[in-house]
Amino acid sequence: MSDTPRARALAKELRAARNAAGLTARELARVLGWSEAKISRIETARRGILVQNVEAMLDVLGMKGEDRERLLKMARDIREPAWWELGRDLPQQLTALIDAEQRAKRITHVSLNLVPGLLQTRAYTRQIMESSGLGDSGLEERVSIRQMRQGILSKRDPVELCAYIDETVFLRPIGGPHVMAEQLRQVISASEMANVTVRGLPCVLGAHAGLSGTFVRFDFVKSRPVIFLEARRSGAFIDEPTDVALFSEAVQLLEKQASDPSTSREILRKYVHQYESEAT
Asked: Which of 96, 170, 276, 279 is the most exposed place for a label (fewest CB within 10 A)?
């Protein structure tokens, strides 16, 4: 399997490891007895990346310990299709997003319009997708996929999630009072997990550092952070350090501007009570 998000991530890591060792692709190829073209195809994920080839490259590069085992695991995992690749015709943007979520150590989500997907209930997600014009044929599968993505928060080594959510998200009654009450209760429950932090951005703040737009920052164990920007059924990753730095600066400001986790839960409980009253 080649040219998948996981293959491209491994290829990038191998290229970085070679550069760190001070070797050119030609020099590495000569030591291994391979052609330079073969190195190029591996480092650009234009051919299947075999575990034995990765092992040979790491031997020459002198990589040992945890870093070596991590890259070998990445190579082995490429051979096994991930759950989102099995019999599904998903947009490349979505598969890339899911892959980033699976590999991330920490995810920071700044949301102005909706509850972040990793915290959504089925009913809330369904309402969003129906309103966007997604037909019945693919609706339930897409809803289920979003629910499956949330597994990264409860796996053995869970991802850390920090969500900054504008208060206007709580005001918008998506699906009506019943759906919103259930949704906000779920956000409160998630916020009590050790690896999940929810910070509200109250309307009384007026302007804040997140108003330029919703974005997600992914931090990885070794790779440099990336930013994901989502538009209508499309999205883009930004990885240039100078561009990423602008979003990181916004997060630093939001840390000072947002309500603390305890106060944020109180804000959420206020809206839960309001929606429950409207639902009766």
From this structure: 279
User: What is the DSSP code string of 43-96?
Assistant: HTT-S---HHHHHHHHHHHT--HHHHHHHHHHHHHHTS--GGGSS----HHHHH
- pTM surpassing 0.70? yes
Q: Beta 234-238 vs 160-166: how paired, if at all?
A: unpaired
CB 243 within 8 Å of CB 143:
no
Tokens of 49: 């990346």
Q: Measuring CA to CA, how many Å separate 14 from each of 59, 67, 97, 103?
A: 12, 11, 21, 16
Q: How many CB atoms lie within 10 A of CB 48?
A: 14
The CB density around residue 271, as the number of other CB atoms within 10 Å, is 21
Is 109:119 a contact under the CB 8 Å cutoff? no
Cα dist from 98 to 15, 60, 90, 117, 151, whole Å: 23, 32, 11, 11, 11
Segment 129-184, tens digit of pLDDT: 988 777 666 788 888 888 989 999 998 889 999 999 999 999 999 999 999 999 99
